[in-house]
# Entry
Amino acid sequence: MSQVGGKAFDFKLFLKVMAYAKPYRSLFIFSVILTVVLGALGTARPILIRSVIDDAILQVNAPELVRLMILLVGLLVAEALGQFGFMYAANWLGQSIIKDIRIELYDRLQTFKLGFYDRTPIGQLVTRVVSDIETISQIFSQGILVIFGDLFRIAVMLGAMFFFFNPVLVLVSLSVIPILFIATRWFQRGIKGAFQQVRTEVSNLNTFVQEHLSGMAIVQAFGREQQEMDKFMKINDRHRQANIKSIFYYALFFPIIEVLSAMSIGLAVWYGGMNAATGGSVTIGELTAIIIFIGMLFRPLRQLADRFNTLQMGMVASERVLKLLNNHEDIEANGMKIIQDLQGEISFQNVHFSYNKDEPILRDVSFEVAKGETVAIVGATGAGKSTIISALMGFYPYSEGSITIDGVELKDIDVHALRQQVALVLQDVFLFSDSVRSNVVLGDQHITDEQLLKAAETIGIAEFIDELPGGLDYNVQERGGVLSAGQRQLLAFLRAYITQPKVLILDEATSSIDSHTEELIQRALMALTKDRTSVIIAHRLSTIQHADRIIVLDKGQIVEVGSHQVLLEKEGAYFNLYEKQFASEA
Ligand SMILES: Nc1ncnc2c1ncn2[C@@H]1O[C@H](COP(=O)(O)OP(=O)(O)OP(=O)(O)O)[C@@H](O)[C@H]1O
Ligand SMILES: [Mg+2]
# Structure
């Protein structure tokens, strides 16, 4: 039995993959019928040729020759058409199936909770969605159907040979087949190991190149080009070794097959000639037909090892992809209650939170935000400010206590409906490699350029957008790399404002920004928070002096609450933060 990654051929897995062919059942059946027809047509050809020689040429029967030749040409044309149909259908099937699987997989990935993405390297997921799925298509285009077709053809040909020809002649000429099987098995094992090594090295190459291109600034800044180059050369060396190893098996296997096939023909000629010379029943036509059959038998036999490997690699890829598709643990939990008209009353009561067990991040956090209020959260880096937002948005589950929105427990709320009424500006703004316009509207076709520019005017960033080459058409590069952190956040403000949300949640960028951008941000904030419930995490305390309330967080606990004036007069934690910032800016 064949092996998949060390264990026996996984038939259950195979059935699961085959289930994806269900919508294309008729195409699948059509392909199977075609392979059967092709097997029969291929077998008929040498038998016809025997008749041409024995019944027409040697009998000098011209009309019979013409008849047989017409039949032969018809057969060839039918075979060619059949082959075209089969190749087209099999690949159509493979591509259709992987399109379905890929869409299903991406859809599933969108439902996973963020904790899953903290644990899983993105590169690995990209490999699953792109190249692993591509490998699955080969199960259909080059694997299962072709293997079935080849085995069927081999069986029909062997049957026909024994039926139509002298059985001893057939047995003698095919006596090398056991050696062929041994050679094939050896080749299959060797090539499988080599292929796995190649795949590992390709994956290493991918990871290295991806990481080092992203981190080029670090490599150059620390002058590590040479060291990194050495590492890269080592990986390339191993990649080359692995490929050369696979070539070694091919280079040796194919000549062996050639020799075996020549031996087989030699045996046929030897036995057939001896038989004919001693007055036996073997005819010239029969001998010719056998020689053609031997050629036709060896071709699929030679390829079978390769095809089994393709099938196995497809199975390995399927296993990985199906594992993701069947991962139900990581699907984001969601409540049923839909809050239609969000008021924006937020309440945290004794909330405890941790990303990983036994590592408490928020401890006994309680606070309330009334409708229309602006509440600011401040505190040292790592205090848990962004974590409060993650909990509030339902990105991660809280372990103890209660978070309610408009009086409804967050765990019972349908978060998708909720998030549509909330605008979130993250600390680290992510921009897609697209135009400013697309990044702001995020697929909402109803927002016109006019509305966009007017909104930009209202929050005071029209000038900034105007100054970008091309304005709204300006393409921010991948990851928004060409805009500064402050500029990216300005675009995120516009993104938030344009949706006219009921609730605004804002996590101010940590990176230092120039005083001009800071002024822009302050002005935009005034417009953004006006008449709506807002929770604002501020790093620059100048931003939040107008907040209704300021919550000071320290190591996951609330230590002070009050307005800017009250907290300053208290000369406590907030006062210290304020002093520190003032000192560093002065
Ligand atoms: N996804 C995560 N998985 C595990 N731990 C995390 C995760 N995100 C944050 N943490 C940890 O939680 C703690 C609080 O982080 P958080 O991002 O809430 O701090 P913060 O107050 O927003 O800091 P900053 O001012 O630097 O933005 C930190 O110790 C951090 O290491
Ligand atoms: Mg933060």
The pocket of adenosine-5'-triphosphate (ligand 1) is lined by residues 118, 355, 361, 379, 381-387, 427, 510 (CB under 6 Å).
